[in-house]
Amino acid sequence: MMKNWKKMLGAAVLMASCAQAWAAPILSTVTTKSSDGSTVSVAVMISNIADLYGYQFSLGFAPGLLKATAYTAGDFLGDANTAMQDVVDLDNASGLVSYAFGSLFSAVPGISGSGLLATISFNVLGAGESPLSFSDVLFLDSNLNDIAVTALDTAVQTGGDVPEPGSLALLALGAAAVGAARRRRAAATA
Questions:
Q1: pTM of structure
Q2: DSSP, residue by residue, the chain
Q3: How far is Cα of residue 165 from the mean position of the Cα atoms in its chain?
Q4: Which of 8, 64, 156, 178 is the most buried if burial means most Cβ atoms within 10 Å?
Q5: Which tens digits make up the pLDDT trace of 50-72?
């Protein structure tokens, strides 16, 4: 009985130490805004993947807040000599970067690790919060088997540095009320 307990404890310690090796691949975004807030750059990243041979994804956004202007392939799969990477459509009417894809050429092993799959550039159209949501996610290994990937949806704040007209009106109204209260207080003490 004691030997079985020790074996189970040893197996649990071994499994815990190998947990990082079993981490599921993660598809995520990193956003960068220009200093004046007029553009947003979205880096699409993959992490902890093994034997990646090909991929596809679509990325949804709020078309009233953002306008997709450019798609640039990342360097994770390599350059134009080793991989084909592109996007089918930047659909600003429906707010969808449709079917970004990449694939290695010929029968070569897939790429393992973490890195940049693509960068998508946007012009900011308005203030608010735009979701960045993945769909049509498919990742394949060098044997063309599915790779289970966790896609993390996020959001980006747009136009946060410029107050909306309604906010400016409330600020002006508050300043006027404070001024009127000071005048009344000054008149009451005089």
A1: 0.72
A2: -HHHHHHHHHHHHHHHHTGGGGPPPEEEEEEEE-TTSSEEEEEEEEEEEEEEEEEEEEEE--TTTEEEEEEEE-SSS--TTTEEEEEEEEETTTTEEEEEEEEE-SS-PPEEEEEEEEEEEEEE-SSEEEEEEEEEEEEEETTS-B---EE--EEEEESTTS--HHHHHHHHHHHHHHHHHHHHHHHHH-
A3: 29
A4: 156
A5: 999 999 999 999 999 999 999 99
